[in-house]
Each structure stands twice: as C-alpha cells, then as structure tokens.
Design goal:
Layout (H helix, E strand, L loop, with lengths): L1 H15 L2 E4 L1 H16 L11 E5 L26 H8 L3 E6 L11 E2 L3 E2 L15 H8 L6 E5 L5 H6 L3 E4 L19 E6 L2 H11 L29 E4 L1 H4 L5 H16 L3 E4 L8 H23 L6 H10 L4 H22 L4 E5 L12 E4 L2 E4 H6 L3 H6 L3 E9 L2 E8 L5 H13 L13
Parallel strand pairs: 2-3, 9-10, 9-11
Antiparallel strand pairs: 1-3, 4-5, 6-8, 7-8, 7-14, 11-15, 12-13, 14-15
Helix pairs in contact: 6-14, 9-10, 9-11
C-alpha cells in the first residue's frame, strides 16, 4: 500500500503540486514495521499501516518543516507535534509533507515559494487554504486522509472546495504542541478525509490532553466511530437565516437547503435561531487573527521583511495597525458571539449552514463570483467559517453536492466537546449520497 501510494503521489505531484517533500525510505521502513505487527496480530486500530501525508506546519522530529516559507525553509524540530506522535502510536505511515499557504495565513494556496496547488476537480481552480495541499492530496488520492489546521476555516474551506469531510474540533480537544502557530487563541487541528467514518477514526487517534499545550483541555474523549449510526428522527436542526443564508451563491443555497429538507423528510425538524452578534464576526476574526499573527512574526517583519510572500507581508503589516483597544474590543465582541451561539445551541442539536458562500475561483484571482457580482475572495471564504474559530465550537463540513463540476460543502456546528453528534449528523447527510458517486477527475 505504501509503495503504491508513494509511486502514485510522485507521479501525480507534477499535476497537483500537493507535496513539498516525500519520506520514501522512512515511510517504507514504517510500513514494513506495521506489516510485521499486523501479521503477528498486534493490530493497533483502524489506522494501522495506513499511508498518509501531513500539512507542513506539523513538526516531524529530525525532519524539515517549512511552513511553506522561505524564512523557515531549513527548520528542523527536535520533537514530533502531539498529533503526529499520536498518529505514529496509531500505526500511521507518514509519506511526506503537504503544500500550504505560507504560515497558514491565506485561503488560495498560491505559494510564492512552492507554487500553487491545483484543485483536482478543476486544475485551474484554487483548492482553498491554508490546508490546500491537504485537501488536494486527499481528493486526488495522493493521501488516504490527512490533518489540517484551522484558524479561520483552513480545514473546512479546502475540504468544501475539494468535496471532502473536514472537522474543526472544539478548541482544546486536539493538542497543538509542535504545530507552528498562526493565532494561538484561534488555531485548531483536525482531520480531512473522504468519509465521516474516516474523520471519526482520525479524531479518535489525535484527540486528548497534553499539558505541553496551554490551550489543551483535559476532557473525556468519546469513541467517535461507535457514535456513528442511527437515524435523524428527532434531530433538531438550527438555521440562522440572517447571517448564514445572506449573500450566498444561489446554487450553494439550494443544495444546502436540499440536504436539510432530506433530513426533515427522514424525521428531523428545523428551528430558526438568532445570533445577532454575528454581524461583528468578520471584524472580530480579522482583528484577533491579524493581531496575534503579527505578534508572532513581528521580529521577522523588522529583520527580513523581503523574505515573506507579498500577500503575507501585507497582512502582517496590517495586523500591526490594530491597537490594544481594538484587540480588546474584539475579545468583548467575541465573548458576545460565543454566548449567543451557546444559547442558540441550548434549543437545537446542531446548526446547519453553507460552508462557503461562493465557489472556488481561478488560481490567481483575488475575487470570487457571488451571483454575478465580484466579491473579495478572502472575506468571502472565511465569512461562514470564522465564527466557529471565535467561539471554539466544533464545526464539520460534509459534501452537499455539485454546483456544475465543483463540490459544495454543508457546515454543521455543534456544542462544545460534542464532536460525536456532529459526526453522527454528518453521517446522515452522507447517507443521502449527495455527490452521486462522482469523484474528482484528477483522482486515481
């Protein structure tokens, strides 16, 4: 399996550009070890021996982790990131590192240092970001599953754009020790996979407390695979019309509502919820993420600004313009958004919404099309995903169908540390086969 996966990924990388490095010899040694253990009946679980690559901001001990940057082009960590060590314990075979938007601050994965990643559904389109290499690798079968990081949507955006399942867990559910930070109060790590069951298995492997991460929470970890199944009868779906269904591509809205209607036909009910503070979410997300990211990169902005990509350099400079008053006011708004989300979720099981309000544009475009009008790509892509980073609540995207030849994602937002319910509900959507068996044209 690993040999064939590596051969295929090497051959396909000229087309997709999902990988920045390969671990051929190390991966084969890990695969041989896994094969011997499995043959001896020492099976570690459902991921034992499975080959997969990881986003290049997750440290692998003794190996280069670049963050898709020039500044960290030769950085070598002495330790594995916590999720990496947990995947190793589960028996995963690591095949390489995946392309990403520089320092995870961007949503088109058009890297000035490693080149653009191409969407396997349409090679001219962006794959989303910042985990664009991760999304493209799984959708094109270059990696079985993978992990992404998500600060404003960077798991869910590329998962939606590539027709995948992507889960941003509750903040603190997955420890971030050994993951290069973008914005420490917003960052999350989670699975990107082809199916809900694969995402459940991945989350089960990486979830848990690690005292080395000050944001990690010591909370019980569910058996996420065992939580799947049942039927949607009695499920109460919250719908927030004023924010999540405003200024949305008409076909995206139709597909998402069709998936909700299908669940209703199977016994679920819909209840409208109101979250007025969402009107502050876009400003709050940017004020928080830009301020924290600029603090992390402040010294490099002084010492070597020319080594950042132009788009990232601009954003980090922009982040230095926010005052302490701006940042603290953003945290007050953030608390209000979280309180209103929590109150809304007291009355429903989950909240459903589109993952993205627009479709993936061509590589190099700074705008997307919204029902015939151009809109800023970054603002549009993070508009529906950013609120869950502000609140820390878990959010799952699953395929809702195809708009033309490109995938559309449906987002499911839930209660804190209740990823089991999100995955179960995602499975209900998956059962309706919204993609009708279609796969990316550039898959194996």
């Amino acid at each position: 399996m690993t040999r064939r996966a590596l051969e295929y990924a090497h051959a396909k990388n000229d087309v997709i550009n999902a990988f920045v490095s390969f671990r051929d010899d190390a991966a084969m040694a890990e695969a041989e070890k896994a094969e011997k253990e499995i043959a001896a009946g020492q099976v570690r679980g459902p991921l034992h021996g499975v080959p997969m690559a990881l986003k290049d901001n997750l440290y692998v001990a003794g190996e280069v982790t670049t963050m898709s940057s020039k500044i960290h082009g030769d950085f070598v960590s002495e330790h594995d990131a916590t999720p990496v060590s947990k995947l190793r314990e589960a028996g995963v075979v690591l095949t390489g590192k995946l392309n990403m938007h520089e320092y995870a601050w961007g949503i088109d994965n058009n890297s000035p240092h490693f080149g653009p990643v191409h969407n396997p559904w349409d090679l001219d389109k962006v794959p989303g970001g910042s985990s664009g290499g991760s999304g493209a690798a799984v959708a094109s079968d270059m990696s079985y599953s993978t992990l992404g990081t998500d600060t404003a949507g960077s798991i869910r955006i590329p998962s939606a754009a590539n027709g995948l399942v992507g889960l941003k867990p509750t903040h603190g559910r997955v420890a971030k020790f050994g993951c290069y930070p973008l914005a420490w109060t917003l960052d999350h790590i989670g699975p990107m996979s082809k199916t809900v069951a694969d995402a459940a298995a991945m989350l089960g492997a990486i979830a848990g407390f690690d005292r080395r991460d000050p944001t990690s929470v010591d909370a019980p970890v569910d058996d996420y695979l065992a939580a799947l199944g049942g039927d949607p009868k009695g499920l109460v779906i919250g719908v927030e019309e004023n924010y999540f269904f405003r200024d949305v591509d008409s076909e995206i809205e139709r597909l998402v509502r069709a998936r909700i209607d299908d669940l209703v036909s199977r016994g679920a009910t819909v209840q409208k919820v109101q979250i007025p503070a969402l009107r502050y979410s876009e400003w709050t997300e940017l004020a928080t993420s830009l301020s924290e990211a600029s603090a992390i990169h402040h010294q490099d902005l002084i010492d070597r600004p020319q080594d950042f990509g132009a788009d990232i350099r601009f954003l980090f400079y922009l982040g230095e313009l926010f005052s302490s008053v701006d940042y603290l006011q953003a945290q007050q708004a953030r608390r209000q958004i979280k309180q209103e989300f929590t109150a809304a979720l007291d009355d429903v099981d989950v909240i459903m919404a589109p993952t993205l309000p627009v479709m993936a544009p061509d590589i190099g475009s700074a705008v997307a099309d919204l029902n015939g009008s151009p809109v800023d790509l970054v603002q549009a892509f993070i508009r529906f995903t950013g609120p869950s980073n502000l609140t820390g609540l878990p959010a799952l995207t699953v395929p809702a169908g195809l708009n033309g030849d490109l995938p559309v994602g449906l987002q499911i937002i839930g209660k804190a540390f209740d990823e089991a319910t999100l995955l179960r509900v995602g499975g209900y959507v998956e059962e309706s086969d919204p993609m009708q068996g279609r796969r990316a044209p550039n898959a194996a």
